[in-house]
Amino acid sequence: MANWHEKQVIYQIYPKSFKDTNDDGIGDLQGVIQKIPYLKALGITTIWLNPIYVSPQVDNGYDVADYYQIDQSVGSMADVEALIQALHQNGMHLLLDFVMNHTSDQHPWFQAALKDPQSKYHDYYLWAQAKPGQLPNNWGSFFGGSVWEPTPKAPNHYYFHLFDRHMPDLNWQNPAVRQAMIEIAKFWLNKGVDGLRLDAFIHIDKANFKQFAVGESQKPVIDDTFYAHLSRVQPYLREFCHALRAIKPDVFILGEAASASPELLIDYSRPQNDECDAVITFRSIVDRLDQLDSRLPAEFQPKALDVEGMRQRLTTIETKLADVSLPVLYWSNHDMARVASRYASTDYYWQSLKCLAAMLYLQRGLPIIYYGEELGLKNSYLKQLSDFHDQTVLPFYQQALAVGYSADQTMKMLNQTHKMAARGMMPWDSDQPYQGFSKHEPWLNGQQTTPVSVAAETSDPTSLLVFYRQLFQLKQTPLFTAGDEVIQPTANGVFQYTRQLAGQLATVTCNLSDTVQLVTNNDGGQPSLTVGAVDQHAGQLNYSPWSMTVTINDKKEF
Ligand code: GLC
Ligand code: CA
Fold first, then answer.
1. Distance (Å) from CA 200 to ligand 1 centroid
2. Alpha-carbon torsion 100, 104, 105, 109, what sign?
3. pTM above 0.85, yes or no
4. Beta-bridge mates of residue 159
5. Could you tell which of 49, 59, 67, 282 is best to mutate to test the pocket of ligand 1, judged by most ligand atoms within 8 Å of the CB?
6. For residue 16, which ligand has an atom nearest its CA?
7. Ligand 1 atom showing the smallest separation from residue 59 Cα
8. In the sheet that 157-160 helps form, which strands lie side by side, from edge to edge?
9. What is the pLDDT of residues 207-259, one digit of tens each?
10. What residues act catalytically?
11. Which of 552, 319, 313, 350 is CA-nearest to residue 451?
12. Ligand 1, residues 12, 163, 169, 334: which to mutate, most atoms within 8 A of Cβ?
C-alpha cells in the first residue's frame, strides 16, 4: 500500500524564526512562501509548520485561542491558502501542527467554562476539588510545579494543565470535545492541508485524579503513569484518524509520542489500527549519562552521544517497525537543543555534522530536518534567564551556583541544552542586518553563535548545505526509500548499516569519533558519497576521524 508520504523528506519550520517579510521581527507565512525555491533546491518535499493559529503565545502557539484563524503575527488565512497553493504547484506538501490535548486559557470554551460552571463548555475541561490548603493530588506539570491551578473565584476548585497553567487540558472523555476536534481537523484538510502532526496526543487520557503519585507527599512529581499512553488514548485516536481518513483517505497523520517505547510505536502506527501513519518518539536519540555531575539534575547538563546505545535503540526500532511503519529520523526539533550544539565535534565540526546526517537519514524512515540544521546552525545564546521563558531554569541556575559553577558557566550549560535556544533565527545572509532574517530586531533575544548562512553555503561546494542536498538526492532513490535495512554490529564509535533492494546493496559507514577506526566493508561497491579520508590498510578500511562512505554495489556481487 504505497502512499505519497512514504517518500517524503520533511522540513520543520518554526514560523516565527524562519523569514520575516514585513519587518516586525517575527517570521511569517509569506516568508515561508518566499523560501520555497530554497527548500525545493535542498530536496525537501514536505513542510511541517509549528502552530500558526490565533494564540496569546504563552508557549509560542501551542496555546491555541482560535483553531479556525491564523495568528496575525504570522499572517492571514489568505497567506496560508497561498502557501498551500504554492507548495502544491511545486509538488510539495504541507503538514500543520494540531494541538489536541489542551487549548489556551483564552479560548472561548475555557472562558465560558470559567464564567458559568453550568455551561456545556465546563465539561470540555478537567476539574477537581481539594481540601482547603491542599492540591487535588501531587501530579507534576511538564512545565514545572503542579498540574493543578486554582480556578479564579471558586475556592478549592482547580483545573488541570499538563503544560503551562495557561494551557488547560481538554476532557477527551466528553464526546462533544472529540467531535469538535474532528471538525477542526476536517476544516484544515478541506483547505488543502496534506497532513497533521498530532501534538502530545499520548496525553489525551488521564488516570483517576484521586490516585497520588508515590513520592514525597504533596511535592508535585512528574509521572507519566497518570497521564501518558493510558487505555483510552488509542480508541480516541482511532476515532479521530478514522474520521479524517473518511474525508481524505491519503491524509498523512504524524503523531508526536515523546515517551513512546518501540512497542507503543507499533500500536500507534500499525496500519490495521487506523491510527497514525508514523510516530515521532524522543527515545530514538541516546545520550551518555556517565559523565554527568551528580550534584545537578541531568536535564540542562551537556551530554555526549552514546553511539552504542543509539545503535541498540535504532536496531530495536528498525526491527520492530520493519513491517509496520516508517521510523521517523531526526536529530533536532523545537523541543530540544540543536544537533550542532549537542554532538558536533569541536575539532571536526563540519565533517561531524555531515557524518551524523548520513548516519541517520539514509536509514529506512522519514527524515525530518529542523530549519537551519542543514547550515550547521547552533543554538542561539540567550543572555538572561528570563529569555528562556521556563520556570525550571532558575532553580537549576541557583543549584549550579551553589555547587560552585560560575554564572557564565551555568548560562553556557543552559544555552547549550535548552529548547528555547534552539528556536533562533534562520541566518540567510551574514552581510544583511539580523542575518537577512528581518530588518527589525527579532522576537527572540538571542545571539547567533556560529557564523553560518545560506548565502555563504550556497556558493561553497564543500558546505554542509550542499552535502545535505546530495544526501537527499540519494535518499530519494528506491534503494533508500524502499530498501531493507540491517544495522551492523561494528566497533564502538562506528555506525554502519546496509540497505538492500532487488540487485542493489548500499553500505553506509560512519566514523562518529575523534579517532581513527578500522572497519571492514566487504560489499565491493563503488563510493557514491564520501566525507573525510578513508584508506585501505591491511585488508581493512582506515576511517579517519569523522569520515564516512556510502558505497553501492549494483553488480550483484554480494
Ligand atoms: C509538544 C510540543 C511542545 C509543546 C507541548 C505542548 O510536546 O512539541 O513544544 O510545548 O507539546 O503543546
Ligand atoms: Ca513578520
1. 6
2. negative
3. yes
4. 127, 149
5. 59
6. 2
7. 10
8. 127-129, 157-160, 148-150
9. 999 999 987 667 899 999 999 999 999 999 999 999 999 999 999 999 999 99
10. 199, 256
11. 350
12. 163
Report the alpha-carbon distance of residue 424 to residue 377 in Å, rounded: 9
Q: How far is the CA of 16 from the centre of ligand 2 (A)?
A: 8
Residue 57: which region, alpha, beta or left (left: phi > 0; alpha: psi -120 to 50)? Answer: left
d(CA 249, CA 238): 14
56 φψ region: left (φ > 0), alpha (ψ -120 to 50), beta (else): alpha
- Ligand 1 atom nearest the C-alpha of 335 is 9
Contacts of 142 (CB under 8 A, 6+ apart): 162, 163, 222
pLDDT of residue 240: 98
pLDDT at 520: 81
Q: How many residues does the chain have?
A: 558
CA 78/CA 84 separation, integer angstroms: 10
Q: Measured between alpha carbons, how far is 558 from 551 in angstroms, rounded to an integer?
A: 12
* The three three-digit cell numbers of residue 160, written as one number: 488541570
Q: Rounded distance, CA 337 to CA 420, Å?
A: 8
Whole-number Å distance, alpha carbon 61 to ligand 1 midpoint, is 9
Q: What is d(CA 347, CA 9) in angstroms, rounded to the nearest whole number?
A: 30
* Domains contained in the chain, CATH given: 4-104+174-472 (3.20.20.80), 108-160 (3.90.400.10), 483-553 (2.60.40.1180)
Residue 378's pLDDT is 98
**Residues 506/479, Cβ–Cβ less than 8 Å:** yes
Pocket of ligand 1 (CB under 6 A): 59, 62, 99, 163, 199-200, 256, 258, 334-335
Q: What is residue 83's predicted lDDT score, i.e. its pLDDT?
A: 98
Number of helices (H), then strands (E), belonging to the chain: the values are 15, 23
Amino acid at 164: D
Specify the long-range contacts of residues 74-78, CB closer than 8 Å, at least 24 apart. Answer: 74/15, 74/16, 74/26, 74/27, 74/28, 74/29, 75/28, 75/29, 75/30, 76/29
Task: Please tell me the distance between residue 254's alpha carbon and the centre of ligand 2 in angstroms.
Answer: 28
